[in-house]
């Protein structure tokens, strides 16, 4: 029955942890189903990429999830905590090139290793639901969904610009372009237009925006980032007719502006290099053609487009101002994006900084059309067309239109409405809402991903693979060299017949963006083995009650995740609108860095595990030497654990040395979950000592034999005090776990309780009963964090081996919280003059009487008339007298 080791007095985590893990495995403790009368609770941590080994960021993330899961189960919930592997992706291809192994082989080996690491940490995971996203069982659903989205018009194909490495003959991700060159080849990267698949997330832009207001359980910071990413703006689309002095009659152009109030300040029009008018003008203008060609080089990342130097060229075309009829030049400008609005901008250099910089550089006119309504001085009254000035910076100041003819004197709103009216009436423009959000490009020109289920036929075009021919399986046993994709290079895989006409056809050889797999995995966990992506079990578990992961996923993953849930809803697979009601974004794990300078000025980063550090009594580093040679190393800043700074601490080494419980305890104790956690081994040691003390205290208590039942009416003052401490701790820890997610303060409270137990030296029957209650509470309260030790200690306290998650979380006994005697401060006119001790239930007028009678207070009250007595319950009595 008992799994308590023979030599029970010394804490040895190894046998304790394997015994607890064996019990959980044997009893399938964390496998859950839907037939439960308890409320469901779905606790989900972001699934790991199988990179090779767990890092501390994983340990922190999964420990937070595990503590919440175990706590929720102890408080009567039917808790699902699943785990899986985000198994497709670029690192497997890079590793394949380096190690000459197939990406699949490398990935599956990593999964096996990391699974055993997760198991050694003792997470309460329902492993029966595990999957790897790179298996056909998983991605068949993604492929089927995609073909349905194609049929609904929600998946479509269009040309898009990618980074092309001309030497490696491959498409590069934005992060693989470094200073405009391919990361591996060093070749100048080109922009190339190739056909790619997109999901129409923009159809859901407004809903994705509005939905954020229904998510009170998400951090404000994440919601703000999502709002900015969706980037809704209201403006006007205005038509400008175009004239060509050379004689042709070009199409008119449309601009999108959020500032129609500045219309009368337009001195030119800027268009994107890919704008049809630019292409047309370039046909007869070799200099312009060369310039457009030049614009094609460089990165496609928007951040870079924003910051790069403004460059442009006159097209020779003229745009007709829609109000004045004046002609203004049309320029190509490198900062105008073809993919936003209309790809054309009415340039107002007087009031837009980018237009100002551009006008300044090319000598184009600048005109003021907005002014402060209440200029405070001459400087505010005059506008200097040679210096940029932010007239909108001070939102509190009122502005008005000037130099704008009939619109003079109007404010922003007034001008917006007047112009909207006018253009809508004349059919020359209309109100328009624009979103910065773009459709989600899901094609990747890579091998190690889910094949896009499309067949190309000369006669029928792009045809979705019929459902009965799915999955389109990615071959795993391939030779991978890095040049070209094994499926693209394999004619047998590529060639097929058209499902529509039976003619010869070819398969799509691009694969999906790996964000596709991580967009719906949360739903699949609810419905293992379901024939469809999700079955009716989805509605039992969803939405996720608590989602936990890194803040780095605030935008892309969390946006696709919300979008996909809406796709599932519209496919009638789930009923809810949002995938997760609460989100916790945990902070980074950081650590000290150590290095030596190399002769060439570079740094050699040294892992903290190889350094011996000396510290002063405040814990500050006073010196550090390399373990291997005893010679000094330099100390760098405390930074996020990373390969580049070689400051990662290997969780496995820590688990091997201290045990999983100590690692879990430290990662919860060292910082609140949202903040950075600095890893330091002295702190880990401290946690190990605490667990050893807890262990010995329990063993010592148990050695005295079984404690009798507790009789709350027969306790002396010291016994009542310990009992009160026990119940105050229960109250605090429950609130810290359940509501505040403040695990560090929960641990600190249990530590305080254990200090009180250590000081409680009472071998009487009721003394032992009170201590038994305190120790049982401590064990149950710590169980979510250090479940292995608690599993053993529970038995040491005289209970049969049990799943502590099914032992109810301790409850507060209200009578135990009552303080028998209260000490109140007595003040006279706000100054402390003495104290009185009263029973907790003393009526107010009796308290006033006692306060006035307090000898020192009475002395100060002599000769004065009391006017008012203020009683702060439980704390202060202040007598106001004069
Ligand atoms: C005139 C103007 C005057 C503008 C002014 C701004 C300030 P958001 O808020 O992001 O929607 N714009 C429009 N399409 C663009 C494109 N394809 N590439 C680059 N810039 C573009 O920004 C809308 C504003 O960004 C528009 O309003 C337009 O410049 C510019 F004092 O029109 B504005
Ligand atoms: Zn066909």
UniProtKB/TrEMBL annotation:
Keyword set, alphabetical order: Aminoacyl-tRNA synthetase, ATP-binding, Cytoplasm, Ligase, Nucleotide-binding, Protein biosynthesis
Principal subcellular localization: cytoplasm
Keyword Hydrolase: no
Single GO MF descriptor: aminoacyl-tRNA deacylase activity
Binding-site residues for ATP, renumbered to this chain: 643
Methionyl/Leucyl tRNA synthetase domain ranges (all copies): 45-177
One Gene Ontology CC term in the entry: cytosol
BP terms from Gene Ontology: leucyl-tRNA aminoacylation
UniProt keyword S-adenosyl-L-methionine present: no
Coiled-coil parts of chain: none
SUPFAM superfamilies from the UniProt entry: Anticodon-binding domain of a subclass of class I aminoacyl-tRNA synthetases, Nucleotidylyl transferase, ValRS/IleRS/LeuRS editing domain
Enzyme class: ligase
Protein family: Belongs to the class-I aminoacyl-tRNA synthetase family.
Protein name as annotated: Leucine--tRNA ligase
Annotated organism of origin: Pseudoxanthomonas broegbernensis
Gene name of this polypeptide: leuS
């Amino acid at each position: 029955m008992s799994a308590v080791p023979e030599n029970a007095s010394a804490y040895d985590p190894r046998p304790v942890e394997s015994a607890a893990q064996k019990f959980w495995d044997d009893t399938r403790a964390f496998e859950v189903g839907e037939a439960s009368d308890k409320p469901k609770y779905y606790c989900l941590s972001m699934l790991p990429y199988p990179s090779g080994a767990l890092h501390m960021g994983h340990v922190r993330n999964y420990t937070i999830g595990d503590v919440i899961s175990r706590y929720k189960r102890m408080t009567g919930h039917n808790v699902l905590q699943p785990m899986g592997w985000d198994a497709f992706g670029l690192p497997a291809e890079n590793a394949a090139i380096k190690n000459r192994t197939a990406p699949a082989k490398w990935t599956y080996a990593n999964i096996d290793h990391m699974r055993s690491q997760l198991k050694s940490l003792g997470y309460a995971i329902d492993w029966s639901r595990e999957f790897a996203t790179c298996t056909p069982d998983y991605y068949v659903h993604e492929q089927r969904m995609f073909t349905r989205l194609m049929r609904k018009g929600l998946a479509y194909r269009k040309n898009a610009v990618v980074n092309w490495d001309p030497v490696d003959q491959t498409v590069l991700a934005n992060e693989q372009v470094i200073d405009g060159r391919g990361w591996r080849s060093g070749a100048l990267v080109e922009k190339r237009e190739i056909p790619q698949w997109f999901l129409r997330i923009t159809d859901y832009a407004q809903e994705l925006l509005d939905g954020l207001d229904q998510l009170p359980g998400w951090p404000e910071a994440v919601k703000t980032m999502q709002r900015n990413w969706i980037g809704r703006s209201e403006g006007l689309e205005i038509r400008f007719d175009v004239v060509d002095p050379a004689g042709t009659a070009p199409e008119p152009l449309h601009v999108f502006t959020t500032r129609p109030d500045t219309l009368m300040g337009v001195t030119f029009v800027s268009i994107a290099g890919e704008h049809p008018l630019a292409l047309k003008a370039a046909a007869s203008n070799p200099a312009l053609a060369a310039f457009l060609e030049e614009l094609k080089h460089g990165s496609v990342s928007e951040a870079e487009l924003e910051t790069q130097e403004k460059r442009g060229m006159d097209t020779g075309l003229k745009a007709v101002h829609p109000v004045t009829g004046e002609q203004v030049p049309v320029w190509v400008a490198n900062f105008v994006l073809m993919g936003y609005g209309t790809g054309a901008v009415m340039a107002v250099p007087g009031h837009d900084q980018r237009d100002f910089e551009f006008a300044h550089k090319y000598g184009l006119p600048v005109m003021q059309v907005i002014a402060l309504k209440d200029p405070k001085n001459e400087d505010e009254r005059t506008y200097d067309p040679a210096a940029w000035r932010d007239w909108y910076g001070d939102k509190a100041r009122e502005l008005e239109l000037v130099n704008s003819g009939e619109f003079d004197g109007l404010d922003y709103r007034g001008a917006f409405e007047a112009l909207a009216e006018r253009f809508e009436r004349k059919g020359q423009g209309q109100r328009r809402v624009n979103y910065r959000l773009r459709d989600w490009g899901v094609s990747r020109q890579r091998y190690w991903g889910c094949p896009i289920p499309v067949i190309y036929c000369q006669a029928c075009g792009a045809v979705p693979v019929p459902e009965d021919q799915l999955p389109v399986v990615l071959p795993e046993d391939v030779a991978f060299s890095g040049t070209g994709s094994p499926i693209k290079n394999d004619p047998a895989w590529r060639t097929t017949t058209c499902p529509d006409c039976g003619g010869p056809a070819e398969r799509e050889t691009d694969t999906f963006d790996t964000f596709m797999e991580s967009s719906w995995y949360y739903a699949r966990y609810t419905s293992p083995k379901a024939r469809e992506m999700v079955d009716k079990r989805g509605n039992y578990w969803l939405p996720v009650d608590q989602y936990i992961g890194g803040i780095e996923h605030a935008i892309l993953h969390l946006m696709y995740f919300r979008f996909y849930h809406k796709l599932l809803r519209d496919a009638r697979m789930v009923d809810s609108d949002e995938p997760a009601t609460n989100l916790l974004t945990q902070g980074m794990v950081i650590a000290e860095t150590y290095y030596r300078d190399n002769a060439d000025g570079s740094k050699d980063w040294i892992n903290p595990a190889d350094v011996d550090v000396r510290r002063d009594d405040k814990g500050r580093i006073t010196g550090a030497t390399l373990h291997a040679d005893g010679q000094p190393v330099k100390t760098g800043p405390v930074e996020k654990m990373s390969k580049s700074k070689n400051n990662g601490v290997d969780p496995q080494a820590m688990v091997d040395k201290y045990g999983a419980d100590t690692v879990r305890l430290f990662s919860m104790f060292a910082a609140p979950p949202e903040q950075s956690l600095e890893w330091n081994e002295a702190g880990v040691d401290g946690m190990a000592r605490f667990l050893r003390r807890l262990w010995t205290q329990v063993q010592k208590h148990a050695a005295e034999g079984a404690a009798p039942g507790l009789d709350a009416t027969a306790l002396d003052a010291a016994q009542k005090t310990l009992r009160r401490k026990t119940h105050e701790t229960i109250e605090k820890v429950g609130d810290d776990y359940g509501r505040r997610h403040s695990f560090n303060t929960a641990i600190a409270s249990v530590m305080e309780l254990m200090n009180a137990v250590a000081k409680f030296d009472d071998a009487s029957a009721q003394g032992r009963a009170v201590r038994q209650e305190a120790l049982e509470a401590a064990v149950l309260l710590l169980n979510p964090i250090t479940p292995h030790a608690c599993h053993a200690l529970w038995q040491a306290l005289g209970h049969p081996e049990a799943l502590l998650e099914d032992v109810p979380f301790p409850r507060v006994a209200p009578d135990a919280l009552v303080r028998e005697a209260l000490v109140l401060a007595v003040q006279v006119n706000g100054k402390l003059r003495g104290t009185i001790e009263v029973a907790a239930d003393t009526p107010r007028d009796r308290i006033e009487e006692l306060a006035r009678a307090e000898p020192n207070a009475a002395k100060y009250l002599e000769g004065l008339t009391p006017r008012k007595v203020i009683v702060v319950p439980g704390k202060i009595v202040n007598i106001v007298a004069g």
